[in-house]
Amino acid sequence: MLAPNHSRKLYPIIGLLLVLLIVAGGYIALLEMQRKAATSAQQKEEPLITTPPESQEATLADLGEQPDWTTLDLWQDTITHDDFYYLLTEIYTTDNTWKRYITIHPDHAIIRTDTSKPGATYRLNFASVISEASPNRNWNSVGELPPGTKDKPLAGVHIAIDPGHIGGDYAKIEARWFQIGDSPPVKEGDMTLLTAKIIKDELINLGAKVYLIRGSNQPVNPRRADDYREAALAKAASLGKTDEETVSQYQQKFFYRTGEIRERARRVNLAFNPDLVLCLHFNAEAWGDPLRPTLTENNHFHVLLHGALTRREIAHDDERFEMLVKILQRSHEEEKALGIYMAQSLSKATKLPAYQYLNAASRARPIKEIPGLWIRNLLANRIYQCPVIFLEPYVMNNKQVHERIQLGDYKETKMIQGEEKKSIYREYADAVVVALRQYYLDYRIIYNPEGS
Ligand SMILES: [Zn+2]
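Above: the input record for the complex with zinc ion. Below: its predicted structure, written as tokens.
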């Protein structure tokens, strides 16, 4: 009799315990579900660094377009992990910011394709062994060319010459124009074209096929500043500026610089497919008022190869893609080998000191063993899809250089400050041609029928 009474007293306690058990079980199950969800989110995100691009910056370079990343399929399984890592870290970037966009595994890399979408990636598989075959590309390295001859060491080599800037009536808006008193004005775009024409003739004599990307002081770009109104408005807005002066400056710049270089690249990449592009420039130091320019005692030369993307540049989806095309085509090997000849030849011909970048680390890398040879990311040396040598000899507002520019082009030599000198254009052109001639003689198989 007693026992049932006792049991009956226990019923509420058992009930309470059961309720507690169910609640606790449910709670544990809920926690477990949350943990699993968190883990799977982490796994999904794991190869990606989720740091967004700095502030509200654009994810594309000026006038850039979202690339078709499947193009990189051409180079699946063609580069080894070690070659990829070396080129990425030692040549093509300036710091570790690439880790935000590229994760390197032993046998593949995961690359972010669209920074505005955290999950958008491309997988590039590495080759397990170094291949003897050339990677997929529209140009020939010196080693891939059929034999040349002693007289025509450049036979069959396709070279595009890009005379920097536009010159002529456009020199003033390009800010590549200055004038001292009544003397003829200095226009960089005219000077590069004059030099390009001399180089062209000399290279044809050595057997090369030469294409002048610009043959007059007119833009290659069919668009004008008005056509860039929308792009300039968007650019100014992204910088938090909406004043008409800023918008108009960007409209101009997009026409004569960004749009012009992009149009030149379109023609080079689609129509000419050269083995090499030579970008010709004359350097300058800040001259201030173009009608009362500051003259300088400084004078120097340097030669640029492509690479050294800054943290802001690698954040742009299109620049990152273009860098990968360069890496996968192995452009650097050819650029460096020829760049050494260029820097040494310019140094010898011009007797100029090598230019030294101040605070180089953030935007330029030196090729340490060769004075005057540097790596930098410029629009022109990035978007031409072949090796590019970018030349920057002479400071135009140096006193002696200015005097030589005033003398114009001439054959033979003239006495300048006690020294017989070629025209500045021929000195420049000859240095370029000497370097190319020697480079192909040294690296190419030279057919020699006489056996002498
Ligand atoms: Zn220039």
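Notes for the reader.
Confidence is low (pLDDT under 50) at residues 1-5, 34-55.
Residues 142-299+394-447 form one domain.
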